[in-house]
């Protein structure tokens, strides 16, 4: 039986670079601007209407992420052309990247699926994942799913991140116990 390696809470987030539509190479987990944390949303790709809906929903919480001091980026294994086609269905202002390789998906410990048909997509793709990386480059929050129906509720997530980041709460990284 094969086992996938999952990233451990509190571990240093791996160095993974992907491209954005403007041709920039970005390193996932490295916040832009004044923020020191980053939420990395991995989505299945253009073929997934639930992903498109979720990405648009993230946009409605963008200010809550900003208020919590958390940068946002989304990424999939889609090609540049597939992402360009999906843009007409998106109403987002946060960065979105493409070209996540299968090896990068494995490094992140994501579940990976084969397309059901050529009409779905032309490549293996990652199932949804969320990685929140703190100012030390450590994985502070992780949520991965093996299907598109289970994803973090964004209101709860943004309120939780604001609470975690409040120094008065002194909230540690959870789930980091070795066993």
TrEMBL record:
<dbReference type="Pfam" id="PF00578">
    <property type="entry name" value="AhpC-TSA"/>
</dbReference>
<dbReference type="InterPro" id="IPR013766">
    <property type="entry name" value="Thioredoxin_domain"/>
</dbReference>
<dbReference type="GO" id="GO:0016209">
    <property type="term" value="F:antioxidant activity"/>
</dbReference>
<feature type="domain" description="Thioredoxin">
    <location>
        <begin position="7"/>
        <end position="169"/>
    </location>
</feature>
<dbReference type="GO" id="GO:0016491">
    <property type="term" value="F:oxidoreductase activity"/>
</dbReference>
<protein>
    <submittedName>
        <fullName>Thiol-disulfide oxidoreductase</fullName>
    </submittedName>
</protein>
<dbReference type="InterPro" id="IPR036249">
    <property type="entry name" value="Thioredoxin-like_sf"/>
</dbReference>
<dbReference type="InterPro" id="IPR000866">
    <property type="entry name" value="AhpC/TSA"/>
</dbReference>
């Amino acid at each position: 039986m094969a086992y996938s390696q999952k990233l451990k809470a509190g571990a240093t987030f791996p160095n993974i670079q992907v491209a954005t539509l403007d041709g920039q190479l970005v390193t996932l987990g490295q916040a832009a601007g004044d923020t020191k944390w980053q939420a990395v949303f991995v989505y299945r790709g253009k073929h997934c209407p639930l992903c498109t809906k979720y990405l648009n929903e993230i946009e409605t919480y963008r200010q809550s992420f900003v208020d919590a001091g958390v940068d946002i980026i989304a990424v999939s294994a889609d090609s540049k052309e597939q992402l360009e086609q999906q843009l007409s269905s998106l109403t987002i202002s946060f960065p979105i990247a493409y070209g996540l390789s299968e090896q990068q998906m494995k490094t992140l410990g994501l579940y990976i699926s084969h397309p059901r048909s050529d009409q779905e997509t032309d490549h293996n793709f990652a199932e949804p994942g969320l990685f929140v990386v703190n100012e030390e480059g450590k994985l502070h929050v992780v949520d991965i799913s093996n299907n598109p129906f289970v994803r973090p509720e964004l209101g709860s997530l943004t309120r939780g991140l604001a609470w975690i980041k409040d120094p008065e709460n002194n909230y540690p990284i959870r789930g980091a116990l070795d066993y």
